[in-house]
Structures are given as C-alpha cells and as structure tokens.
Amino acid sequence: MKSSSAVPLSLSLPLSARRYTGYEAMPFFEGLLPEDDVREAVARQFHVSAMRPMELIRVLGKDCAGDVVILEEGDSCDLPGEAAYVPLPNTLEEIVRYPYGAIAQLRAEYRLSLAGGQEKIALFHDDRAPLDKGWFAPLAGAPSSHIIKPQIADRFPLLASNEFICMEAARAMGFEVPETAIVLGEHPLFIVRRYDREMMEGS
For 30-75, what is each residue's pLDDT tens digit? Predict the structure, then answer.
C-alpha cells in the first residue's frame, strides 16, 4: 500500500517498492531488542529462543523505540485509548527493593521490554501525580512515557547515578536533554522521560 506520508524505518531501509530480505532488514530489528543477559532473561520468560530475534520481536514489538509498532498478522493496529493502562500503585518502591524481580514480573505480565544491555522497563506516568505515584503499565501497544533503569549491574555499581549526573551536566552546559530524575534507595533508579514520545494536546 502506497502512502504520501510514508517514512523509512531507517537509513539502511529506504522506501522501496521491493520487499527487503531478512539479511537486509535484520540489523534494524535486532536494534530494537535487549542484549546479552537481559536478552537471555527475556527469552526464558517468554519461552522463546534468544537466537531467534523475530520470535522476541513477536512478543515485545508493541512498544519499541521510536514510532514503531510491530504486530503479528491479524493483530489490531488501532491506536489504544486511555483505558489501555493498568495502575501500578507501588511500582517504584518494588523496583527499588527488588529490581530484577519487579521488572521481570512487569515484563512477563505486560510484555514490556526495551533494547540495550541494561535492565530497564518502560511505563507511563501521570504527570499530575508526584514521581513516586501515578505509574501505569501500558497495554495493547499503548505508548509509555518514561524509562526506568535500576542500578543493579555489579560491573558498574554507580551506573544509574552516573547517567543522571551526566545528563544534568549536559543540561547545565546548554544541551537539550530529556527530563530526568534519580530515586535513591537500596537500588537507585534513573528515570528519563522518553524523547521519542510526544504528548498531544487533549491526550
């Protein structure tokens, strides 16, 4: 189907009338998936092979980086409404205390995941509430608004704090950076507003 508003998925996949092969398209889709230990954990949770990226995309593709949604044949592509969110009253408290367990449970129950080698979860925050409240799990492809990264990597014990400091230093130097926050506790959390999501007026 042709569209005057069509845009390419990436520079490596320009608009074309021909169908791209798996070899040509796979690097783009691999870039949407978790890496290393996180990838293995996701694969175990969903009982798929970590060596089969399209199996992982099938279960995780409804809220990818950028403005991309990946659906199976027959899935609805209707935009989700406000009702497609589940309130999570103790989200941050649980992640601070038990980051691996809390994120694994959220990921398994709501099929939420993000690319990269660092454990993280994408959620929606109601900005009318304080940061420790008003968190929701998006359902059926509903967009998330924030990414939460706990400080749990043994190799980089100050990773969340370092990322927050670097972002705020860049802001102080005049660079345009997303809104960030740090939540202290047993496992500090780095929270960043998604720059690839934009709230529309009236939403």
Answer: 887 877 777 787 788 778 888 888 888 877 776 676 667 777 776 6
For the chain, the DSSP string reads ---TT---SBTTB---SSPPPHHHHHHHHHTTSB-HHHHHHHHHHHT--TT-HHHHHHHHTTS-SSS-----TT---PPP-TTSEEE-TTHHHHHHH-HHHHHHHHHHHH----SBSS--EEEEE-TTS-TTS-EEEE-TTPPP-EEEEE---SSSTTHHHHHHHHHHHHHHTT-----EEEE-SSS-EEEEE-TT--PPTT-
Longest dimension (CA), the chain: 53
Answering whether pTM is above 0.70, one says yes
Instruction: Please name the residues in contact with 84: beta carbons below 8 A apart, sequence gap of 6 or more.
Output: 138, 139, 140, 141, 142
Q: Is the dihedral of CA 134, 137, 141, 145 positive or negative?
A: positive
Domains of the chain, by residue range, sit at: 24-60, 85-193
- Only one residue has tokens 């950028």, namely 66
Give the residue carrying structure tokens 């924030």.
146
Q: Which CATH class is domain 85-193?
A: alpha beta
Could you tell me which residue, 203 or 110, shows the higher pLDDT? Answer: 110
User: What is the C-alpha to C-alpha distance for residues 190 and 173, in angstroms, rounded to an integer?
Assistant: 20
Asked if 20 contacts 13 with a C-beta cutoff of 8 angstroms, the reply is yes
Using CA atoms, how far apart are residues 118 and 190, in angstroms rounded to an integer? 12
